[in-house]
Amino acid sequence: MVRGLVNFTGLSTRLLNICVDSLCKFRKLEKAESLIIDGIRLGVDPDVVTYNTLISGYCRFVGIEEAYAVTRRMRDAGIRPDVATYNSLIAGAARRLMLDHVLYLFDEMLEWGIYPDLWSYNTLMCCYFKLGKHEEAFRVLYKDLQLAGLNPGPDTYNVLLDALCKCGYIDNALDLFKEMQSRFKPELMTYNILINGLCKSRRVGTAKWMLTELKKSGYTPNAVTYTTILKLYFKTRRIRRGLQLFLEMKREGYTYDGYAYFAVVSALIKTGRTKEAYEYMQELVRKGRRHDIVSYNTLLNLYFKDGNLDAVDDLLGEIERRGMKADEYTHTIIVNGLLRTGQTRRAEEHFVSMGEMGIGLNLVTCNCLVDGLCKAGHVDRAMRFFESMQVKDEYTYTSVVHNLCKDMRFVCASKLLLSCYSKGIKIPTSARRTVLSGLRMSGCYGEARKAKAEMKLTLTLNPNKHLKEQFVSNLDGSSILEIAALLTIVPLLVLLRYSIGFHCKIDNNGVKAVTSKKNDDEKIVISRNWKAAISLDFIFIVFPMLLFFTVLSEWVYHGTVLLSLLVLILSVTAKRSFSGLQRGQSLSFRASVSSYRVALMLITCLCILAVDFTIFPRRYAKTETYGTSLMDLGVGSFVLANAIVSRQARDVSSGNWITGAKATAPLLLLGFIRLVTTSGVDYQVHVTEYGVHWNFFFTLAAISILTSFVNIPAKYCGILGFAVLAGYQTWLLSGLNTYLLSDERGTDIISKNKEGVYSILGYWAMYLLGVHLGYRLFYGKHTKIRSTTSSIARVFLVSLLLWIVTILFDNYVERISRRTCNMPYVTWVLAQDLQALGIFMLSSYIPLNKLSSLEEAIDQNLLATFLLANLVTGMVNLTVDTIFASPFSSLLILTAYAFALSAIIGTIHFSGFRLKFW
């Protein structure tokens, strides 16, 4: 019968939701609750939308705990909360800056199998920014969103732009805006955010340019746009120009909501023109605009400016009689006004009453109270209140430091200032100068020297260090197939350069003019042409590599196919055009290895800087635990390349362990130099890569020392290498990998550098296997009777077998892990590098091939190239906010870096200087 009544009267859940929403908007939550109960009695069951509406109302007008209690009732009713439910709760907690609650709600969502959406992450970023935790906010953008498989949309960019503008990073916001334009069309809100940020930083010219861009995009400036620029004029005391713009807004009809009037009145109040301010307020009333809480706030500010406290009391009474509820701004104006009129006790009492009434104590109100008490001479009371504040920002600390100095408490001010620097809180330089000057003036010279020294230690040269570390952390890498395709492109570019070089010789000089073949011991580049040759090598090898590593990363497979076809066509035509190459002529293996090592160095040099820019795909950066990426090959490839051409592989006596130890000294020295310099400039360090103190040079040094002590013939190195690798892999599977992949670190030196120390076993095994492969494939006596084709075939066959082993181990034993240097990682590096080396060896089928000028220069100066690349990378990172650079700026910087590196190394080499790595 009840169901029939419901059908007859037209009652439905949809109608119930509309009614509940209306009641919640008018803050009548008790009536909304009663309506839901009545609906249930009549047979109209609430759904998830009903409860979400109620939760949103509680979050806005009551409290987060009351709102969370509704979710329990939902579950009791058999209704499962959805992402909208948690978004309302997260928004409510973020609005009150309850970060712990926000993070708890995120965890609970995941436990219930509810996945956060873009709105969830946008709210989290807002909360982080409001609390001054900018690094965590950018971590959400660059890591969490990617892990969640979400692409940032216009709303995400708007949140980020708004935060950058509020934090004063206007140039970075403009760069991000350009990046946003390349992805999708910005919204009107986006332009308003930027114009507002530019206006607050008083960059009038750029704000006008942004307004022009807004009009070009097809949007019409709205009231928000005009009001923002109006506030800029008033802020810069261009009252006359502001009033002219206000008249223009009135003609355009943009003063209907009264906010422009309030901006005019506020500006007139600040300049002491209270009479004109009253006239504008009366004009607003005559236009039929009834006072709301915003206009009441403006009038309160006006009365306090005049010192008319009686009018203030009357106005507060009127607000109460009309049943209106004062907002946070109202109470902030009251507290600030009472402090300015000398009513400090009354201001404190009102502040306490705010807490008793359940009104959120916003940061602006707290800052007003602290600053006002200090200026009134009540510094001790202000400091007690300052210590009780849970949330503090840069303005809070700056205000207290300056006020302590005014009260001649310079020692206290210096301690507070040092605590700010240690916490990473940005304090104006003026506060630092004031504290140091005050200490000296008060005769505390020792304290001044000590404070200055500590400030130098805590002030960082790299303000975005933690953000950059987050940018390259917690990554999963790419697929094995993509990395294989990407690493195939590099030797193909070199072969393409050889092929094009041959045709250029035919066209310019004729075949007979070139009589030399590729030879390791012969000077192959004419000195007077080296500059042009280096430039061509950069155009055909280095620059395409850079493009495929960055902006063309989505075209890797297409590039591999296209380059393969080009090389094949050019090689075939070159062979037909040249009859001087005899059948069976052999390519020097050392030349192919030189090309391979140079390519490895170029990849490393490009990646170490490119990884800090957003145009470098995160899937190519080093993985955190398991996975494969382009940069994961780095140290492993260096170890293997060193092993293949080592004295052991060539079956040449390497002397005793003392000789080996002496050869290791430069590596240890470089390792310590890198450790000291990175620590000295507070350079970003990805700790999970090697550890706290360990680095690439220490790993190479450790392998060299072990090889010196265990010096066995090359034909037995494979057996020892496999035994070491098998034993190490067994140890990993027995629990060592759990320890190595955990974030826990002890206080001893080994625990702090556990990744670097324990992975030595894997890299040493890789080195021994590389020595054995070099001996068996290239240097053994039996290899001298093989033809070029047979040698290349054997390299590809071994690579194929290693690929099969890698895939089997990766799928059935343990995933590839660079961090632990496990068995699958070792076999992957061996397979990948032998494949690349085999492709380089195919250059024997290109007539008159020889090392390009750039290859020769880098091959003879590997150490100089690596050191120069590291030096320039460090300089760029310390002078450029790489993660905020636009795609165009990033590519321009990387291109300039790559060309400068090529030109400098070319100049060094052809000037007769030589500095080899090994």
Automatic annotation (TrEMBL):
It is found in: Membrane. InterPro entries: PIGW/GWT1 (IPR009447), PPR_rpt (IPR002885), TPR-like_helical_dom_sf (IPR011990). PROSITE patterns: PPR. One of its GO terms (biological process) is GPI anchor biosynthetic process. The chain crosses the membrane at residues 477-496, 532-549, 555-574, 595-616, 628-645, 657-677, 692-712, 719-740, 760-779, 791-813, 825-848, 860-880, 892-913. GO terms for cellular component: membrane. This is (thale cress) hypothetical protein. It comes from Arabidopsis thaliana (Mouse-ear cress).
